[in-house]
Design goal:
Length: about 425
């Protein structure tokens, strides 16, 4: 079993950027080389700005190279909560922005001919009990009212069997707008597009400090400094000491994934005939999909721990057990890959943008960053290139997470509570 991301193991980098010189000056310096940073760099460079991406490790090393590759519709908090929190008009606009974000990926894939298996295979939201299925039915009406095409359907019984071969779920909701992609190939494709458009991509260039210099900022990196007119922080769940104000507002929550051996086309078609991007209604959600080469990718918050080889191996055991509960047919399937990464959860589970200490930021994708990071990178890039007057979500209140001073000591306690709730719901079928 490899302790590395399947996506990165099966994709070719567009180049080696570990020795790209850090330029002395830039119009925009971006801290973080994931989907947010790279997508912003593409936009800035093609509009003629001198832009440098400063990445402490390698491009896509953070969550962008470690996720499920699932670009799924809908807000992390769901429509009901969004309407009660923001009012109907704003909630609908937010929902549609998440939908539009998938089109942003599609546009980039087409425009730069990025070969990354992008496919609108659809999203499958699964209910573990009758109460959650009723919740999906309510959501279906709401989404069909606001979506451009009223094509979201709820399934149970034999209809569900046409979507998934699992005894674990009582029903599901299908939204055909969801998409899957090979996220390793996509990250490398974006990096190639940014480099071709003239962006400076600097790997192994961690930013240690940012100091105001007149109207500009000097960023000191591990291999040289750059003076920039504008700065974009794109550090997501890997936000650290450089930006303490942001660090208190983002919870870095570990999420883990296992990937099986290739299952062959017959078994893959039996388990997930429509190859949709699936996630379920548990508090500690399981999410899964087929990879382009017919392996099952199965993820979840297996343990409330950070990713390291020991932690990833322990999480793999938990996830393997969960996977065989959902798909008993995989009892003897070999696990070829396991890894983990950090998801950037905010208190309200919404995206946040704005400025702190002279630097713009975009983060808080709360598990929806495949499309939202790509989309927000583009929006931030357009703004910083002078092509738009503002960016979405700016000016929203961004509350700190109580007790989060950089190391979220309380996460294992929250995780244990969520395990208890999931166990209770399984016993009682979700009845209160
Ligand atoms: C296991 C897992 C599964 C997920 N599955 C999904 C999914 O299926 N669908 C979905 O929509 N979302 C998913 N996500 C979330 C999604 O991957 C992220 O929201 C998204 O990739 C964030 O992109 P980003 O560019 O903002 O940040 P990242 O990709 O995390 O990049 C941040 C980068 O900043 C760098 N950095 C930090 N500090 C510094 C510094 N001082 N100097 C220089 N560089 C620095 C880090 O090295 C890192 O590479 C998942 C996340 C994980 C971990």
């Amino acid at each position: 079993m490899k302790l590395t991301s399947y996506w990165y193991d099966t994709a070719e980098p567009s180049g080696d950027y570990r020795r790209t010189p850090v330029p002395e000056t830039a119009d925009v310096a971006i801290v973080g080389g994931g989907l947010t940073g790279l997508s912003a760099a593409v936009e800035l460079a093609r509009h003629g700005a001198k832009v440098v991406v400063l990445e402490a490790e390698t491009l896509g090393w953070g969550a962008s190279g470690r996720n499920g590759g699932m670009a799924t519709t809908g807000l992390a908090i769901g429509m009901g909560t969004a309407i009660s929190r923001y009012g109907r008009e704003r909630a609908v606009a937010m929902h549609l922005e998440y939908d539009r974000a998938i089109s942003t990926i599609e546009d980039l894939v087409d425009e730069f001919a990025i070969d990354c298996d992008f496919e609108r295979s659809g999203k499958l939201a699964l209910a573990c009990n009758q109460r959650d299925l009723d919740g999906l039915r309510a959501a279906q009406d709401e989404i069909n009212r606001i979506a451009e095409l009223p094509d979201v359907t709820v399934l149970d019984g034999a209809d569900l069997g046409a979507e998934i071969a699992s005894p674990f779920y009582v029903g599901g909701m299908v939204d055909p707008r969801g998409a899957g992609l090979h996220v390793g190939k996509f990250v490398h494709g974006l990096a190639g597009a940014a480099a071709q458009s003239g962006a400076y991509l600097c790997e192994k260039a961690g930013v240690a400090s940012m100091t105001p210099h007149g109207a500009q900022t000097v960023l000191q990196t591990t291999r040289g400094s750059v003076r920039a007119a504008e700065v974009l922080i794109a550090t997501s769940g890997y936000t650290g000491k450089l930006t303490p104000w942001l660090r208190r507002r983002v919870l870095p929550v570990g999420s883990f994934i296992v990937v099986t051996e290739p299952l062959g086309p017959e078994l893959a078609a039996e388990l997930l005939p429509t190859r949709r991007m699936a996630s379920d209604s548990k508090m500690l959600t399981y999410y899964f999909r087929m990879t382009p080469d017919n392996r099952l990718l199965f993820g979840g918050r297996a343990r409330f721990a950070l990713s390291n080889p020991d932690s990833d191996l322990r999480s793999a055991k938990v996830l393997r057990k969960a996977m065989t509960t959902v798909f008993p047919a995989l009892r003897s399937a070999r696990i070829d890959y396991t890894w983990g990464g950090l998801v950037d959860i905010t208190l309200d589970q919404m995206v946040h943008t704005g400025m702190t200490k002279g630097a713009h930021y975009s983060l808080g994708y709360s598990g929806h960053g495949v499309q939202m990071a790509t989309h927000m990178g583009r929006e931030m890039g357009l703004y910083l290139a002078g092509k738009s007057e503002s960016y979405p979500w700016a000016g929203d209140k961004f509350p700190a997470v109580p007790g989060n001073l950089g190391s979220p000591w309380f996460l294992p306690i929250v995780g244990a509570g969520a395990h208890v709730v999931d166990g209770w719901n399984r016993l009682t079928g979700g009845r209160r």
